[in-house]
Amino acid sequence: NVIPRAPEDFDYVIVGAGAAGSVLANRLTEGNRFSVLLLEAGPDNEGVLEGTLPYIYPRMFGGPYNWNYSTAPTPGLGNRNGPYFRGHVLGGSTSINGMTYTRGPSADWDRLASHLGDSSWSWARIQSYFRKNEAFEAPPGPPNNRFTPSVHGTSGAIGVSLNLNNEWIVPPTLQAASEIGLPYNNDVNSGNPIGISWQQFAIKNGARSSAATGYLRQNVAGRTNLNVRVNARALRLVPNSGPGPLTFRTVEYRDETNGNIIQVSARRDVIVSAGVIDTPTLLMRSGLGDPAELRAANITPRFTIPALGNNFIEHPGVPISWSVNTTLTDDELDKDPALFAQELERWNTNKTGRLAQTSLTHIMYNRLPRNHSIFRTVSDPSGGANAPHYEQIVANKWVTLGARPAGNFIGMTQFVMAPTSTGSVKLNSADILGPPIINANSFNTEWDKAVIRHAIRSSIAYMRSPAWAPFNIQPTFDPTVADTDARLDAFVAASGFGGAHGVGTARIGRANSRPGSDVVGPDFRVKGIRGVRIVDASVLPFSPAAHAMVPVYVLAEKAADTIKGAP
Ligand SMILES: Cc1cc2nc3c(=O)[nH]c(=O)nc-3n(C[C@H](O)[C@H](O)[C@H](O)COP(=O)(O)OP(=O)(O)OC[C@H]3O[C@@H](n4cnc5c(N)ncnc54)[C@H](O)[C@@H]3O)c2cc1C
Questions:
Q1: Is residue 40 part of a domain?
Q2: Based on the structure, what is the number of domains in the chain?
Q3: Can you give the pLDDT at residue 516?
Q4: Which residues contact 375 (CB under 8 A, 6 or more apart)?
């Protein structure tokens, strides 16, 4: 029941209005050279309070703004199925995420340049794209030791700021780092993130700055060449009929408001920006991928791409909480409706207060010591000397998975930042339009296990350092789990989660790499077929040691220039 529409003229049809799709829609319609149709499966973000107030962002994790996926049972996580969050709303995951703004280490960008044999991806040469993305808002007062002004963009699309709430937690947070020997780092986004830094957030004037607010609402008013359709879920790409090379320039989508199925075509290309899960699944539903898996799902295979859906890489994490004797933690805000109402009133009045920020203020990055025993059997998989192996974030509240007991807490979540475990995304052959089978394979390698053990032990040392003693800090877990690797592994399996920074399921490779081993080439075109490019987190071939949003924004900014043919 495909409803033919009057032919519409678009140069590009972009599927997915997340970090990447929004950047592309904006940049490709600059200058009125090209027309773009942007299809987004989820609803509009406009007026969604929980997607605007930074503090309550976890409320975006359930309901209509999330694809509500889960991971397959994961051995490294005690065979649990975890939730796998993905934004299903204009702005994609940038409309539901934690807003942490990290560019990653210079070593990882240089690694991407060397992977592609193209120095224009190097840290030194990618700087203009960081600046196009960023409008850093310096905190009031003269430049100080909380950030380095010279490394920031100030007129880009996304507002970036520091969290100046939670003043009580700042001195012990910094002092404890110094007591365990972690250096102070003036700016996490300088290219060298190692150390403890003030955390930077995609928050502007007390509100979330997302791909939707930054790229689809600013500077595009009046662009008649940009057409955005929400509640429009692409179901498959339709191959052109007739002889000639296999070409896909038609997208079949479902209008989720009435169930109508509609086809639209692109004169130039379809650009798939549906994210690390939905990009490979959309291509599989269109007959691309592993022929045996496609046949099992009753889909006619059209082109073999073995790499599609494989190489799924995540940053698995383990949150732990410690009780403290101060009532200044955000647990109060969560459990006291009167305090919350007071802060909401403050936010509504002037966009300030505790709801204008999250519960995090600082971020720590570190590497395993050079003499760690794991290096006897595993060579360092990170990008280089300034690429962290793990990240730790202090939170002004309870963070452990599961119900919060009475009391006040601070949390520490640790992530493996240079993981070697890889997983996959596959169609569920019993329900090809339903949720795919997501296997993050968390904590599956000796390296990942060694890194998380080290991070948890260092976290315990950090919380036990003298700086926290005045707060009568106490673990909410049995700290003797850290006494042996086996007990610590069991703790990780019971309390860890799979991550939210997925990349790699449609990875980019050099122009001359074999079609099928890499999914796209440096021009972002799917190798072996015509008419389709992919630009989103799925093309990143390895996981940058950063939360993935800025790397995806910058990838898309650069891809837009590639697509426009500009230098
Ligand atoms: C809960 C959570 C917390 C996170 N926290 C952070 C953080 O603090 N900092 C950070 O840097 N990164 C964070 N991330 C990761 C970051 O948001 C993502 O890496 C980034 O948004 C990926 O961009 P993308 O364009 O690849 O995909 P997305 O931003 O996910 O966008 C994909 C879009 O495509 C749409 N789509 C999918 N399928 C279809 C279809 N068939 N038809 C039409 N539209 C479709 C989706 O609805 C979505 O809008 C977080 C992610 C999540 C989910």
A1: yes
A2: 2
A3: 81
A4: 368
Tens digit of each residue's pLDDT (9 = 90 or more) over 441-490: 999 999 999 999 999 999 999 999 999 999 999 999 999 999 999 999 99
Query: How many Å apart are CA 268 and CA 532, to the nearest integer?
Result: 9
- In this structure, of 218-227, 280-289, 350-359, the range with the lowest mean pLDDT score is 218-227
Atom 3 in ligand 1: which residue has the minimum CA distance?
97
Pair 289, 366 in one domain: no
Q: Per this entry, what is the length of the chain? A: 567
DSSP string computed for 513-533? SPBTTBSB-TT-BBTTSBSEE
ipTM over 0.85: yes
User: Within 13 Å and on the Cβ side, how many CA atoms surround 213?
Assistant: 23
Predicted pLDDT of residue 6: 57
CA distance 529 to 515: 10
What is the SS3 assignment for 19? Answer: helix
Tell whether the model's pLDDT for residue 142 goes beyond 90: no
Q: How confident is the model at residue 158, as a pLDDT? A: 98
> How far is the centre of ligand 1, averaged over its atoms, from the C-alpha of 517 (Å)?
24
Closest C-alpha residue for ligand 1 atom 48: 92
Instruction: Give me the pLDDT at residue 221, please.
Output: 81
Query: In terms of DSSP bridges, do strands 317-324 and 408-416 run parallel, antiparallel, or are they unpaired?
Result: antiparallel
| Mutation pick for ligand 1 pocket among 97, 256, 272 (CB with most ligand atoms within 8 Å) | 97
Mutate to test the pocket of ligand 1, among 93, 503, 519 (most ligand atoms within 8 A of CB): 93
pLDDT above 50 (res 567): no
Q: What is the pLDDT of residue 57?
A: 96
Which token pair is 517?
């081993």
407 and 356 belong to one structural domain = yes
Q: Could you give the CA distance from residue 91 to residue 492 in angstroms, rounded to a whole number?
A: 32
Residue 476 CB neighbour total at 10 angstroms: 16
Quote the Cα angle for 365-366-372, to 5°.
160
Q: Ligand 1, closest atom to CA 89?
A: 49
Question: How far is the C-alpha of 174 from the C-alpha of 196, rounded, in Å?
Answer: 7
Once rounded to an integer, what is the mean pLDDT over residues 218-237? Answer: 93
Domain limits for position 383: 157-208+317-418+443-495
Q: How far is CA 481 from CA 127, 358, 375, 399, 472, in A?
A: 44, 30, 23, 18, 21
In this structure, are 271 and 294 located in the same domain? yes
Q: In this predicted model, what pLDDT tens digit does every residue of 479-521 receive, in sequence order?
A: 999 999 999 999 999 999 999 999 999 999 999 998 788 999 9
Query: What's the CA-to-centroid distance between 20 and ligand 1, angstroms?
Result: 9
pTM over 0.95: yes
pLDDT at 3: 64
φ and ψ of 263, to 5 deg: -110, 135
Q: Which helix (H) or strand (E) segment is 28 a member of?
A: helix 19-28
CATH of the domain at 40: 3.50.50.60
CATH label of the domain that carries residue 366: 3.30.560.10
Q: Which residues contact 86 (CB under 8 A, 6 or more apart)?
A: 66, 67, 69, 92, 93, 275, 277, 278
**Residues 348 and 227 placed together within one structural domain of the fold:** no
Q: 189 with 321, same domain? A: yes
What φ, ψ does residue 311 adopt, rounded to 5°? Answer: 60, 35
